[in-house]
Amino acid sequence: MRRSLIVAGVTQAKIARRHSVSHAAPGLWPVATSLALLACAVAQQLLVPDAKAGTREASQFLVPSGSPDESMRAGATLARELEPGVEISYRDSQAGTLSMSRVDGDHVRCIVRVSPDTREALKPLDRFLKDRVNQKAQAMFAMAHEIGHCKLRDAFLRRSDGRAADASVFPWVAQEAAADVYGILSVERRLGDGAALRQSVIIARMLSATMYHDAPHATGHYVSNALTLCGQNRTDADALHCAISTAYYTVGSMTNDEQGAPLALDTPPGRIYQLGVREISKRMRLYDGIRQYKARFSGADLRRFTFQQVLRNGDSRYITAENDRRADITYRLADFYGFKTGELVTQDRRNVTALRIDGADELDWLLTLGAVVHTGNGVSLRKGDAQG
After folding, report:
1. Sequence-ordered alpha helix ranges (H) in the chain
2. What spatial distance separates the first Cα and last Cα of the chain, rounded to whole Å?
3. CA-closest candidate to residue 188, choices 199, 178, 203, 177
4. pLDDT digits (tens, 9 = 90+) for 192-230
5. From 30, 108, 167, 380, which residue has the greatest number of CB atoms within 10 Å?
6. Do the Cβ atoms of 185 and 241 come closer than 8 Å?
7. pLDDT, tens digit (0-9, with 9 covering 90-100), for 269-298
């Protein structure tokens, strides 16, 4: 159940990793599956005219949203309690759950995409959870898991010392383990320990990872041991602290394995955690704050796509996207990153699917993710040119 972008840049650790084991690989769909869908999108030649008076919106530009069933509504209620500013959209075409974090100005906004149908949203864990945990509790876990991804990214982008860092430095399985722990603890605070969620999720993850060869989501072992690091679960801050500890523990455990297990199996989890802290400190780059992070970070997520500005109308820019096969993947990119999408009708009455990027902050974020936008007048908007 996922994604990160911590900045959408993290997020494409998601598109690259989650889309291969996807949150719907029958189950909490990893982001790599979305990429597969993007690559398989129906090839369609794009008309990319210069901005002309005859070009106008042909449909309402928005993030389409379906009607959730009762269990997904319960999950959304918990998600909004955990993260009041979260944006949740229900997509009929979405299997599993997916989250991303977008930086608007100097704030982090959590965006969750999820199927309105509980059975679709819970893939693939539902197969292993349904006999252990009721569907409502599963839906709550799925949504809390995605909020956990956002919380992890936000915690590193807005560190207590005022600096910023990119949580994508953690391997994907460590991010997933952290989100699992956050989801478990959040639901346990709501439903009580009697919900039997903890052991059920651990077992379901192990079974799912084995059956579907899903290494990026094989979090069961790490979660089981890391939870012993967490002494209490009275508040959301406790859950987040435990989630961060889990991410470090997972890295420490993986590092120990890679080094030939110098630390024995019965080593206290705290020592494994410390090993993870030391390992991550070697990789993590620190920024003075979110503004410096946005100024210096250059995401690679969107560099493989070609973006064309079809029309500019005031602060709004209408932009198309295609991949290296010339396939129109505008809609899917908008869906994944939480941008508005719709259709333009050009002066020759042909429709063009486009992203609508409103204002400098949204454009800045698109460019931060690595996009280069060709405007049609010989100018290419790149990172740092949001006001151009």
Report:
1. 8-21, 31-39, 70-82, 118-121, 126-129, 135-157, 172-191, 197-211, 220-226, 236-258, 269-283, 290-296, 330-337, 359-368
2. 37
3. 199
4. 876 688 899 999 889 888 888 888 888 999 999 999 999
5. 30
6. no
7. 999 999 999 999 999 999 999 988 888 877
Cα gap 246→227, rounded to integer Å: 7
Q: Number of C-alpha atoms within 13 angstroms, CB side, residue 63?
A: 20
Q: How many alpha carbons fall within 13 Å on the CB side of residue 194?
A: 2
- The domains of the chain are located at 8-294
User: Which residues 6+ apart lie within 8 Å of 174 measured at CB?
Assistant: 222, 246, 247, 248, 250, 251, 254
Report yes or no: 367 and 337 within 8 Å, Cβ to Cβ: no
Rounded distance, CA 28 to CA 123, Å? 5
Q: Which two tokens stand for residue 31?
A: 């982001």
Only one residue has tokens 């936008």, namely 373
214 residue type, one letter: D
| Residue 58 to residue 268: CA distance in whole angstroms | 61
Question: Sign of the C-alpha dihedral, residues 253, 255, 256, 260?
Answer: positive
**And the tokens for 334?**
């908008």
Distance CA 44, CA 47 (A): 10
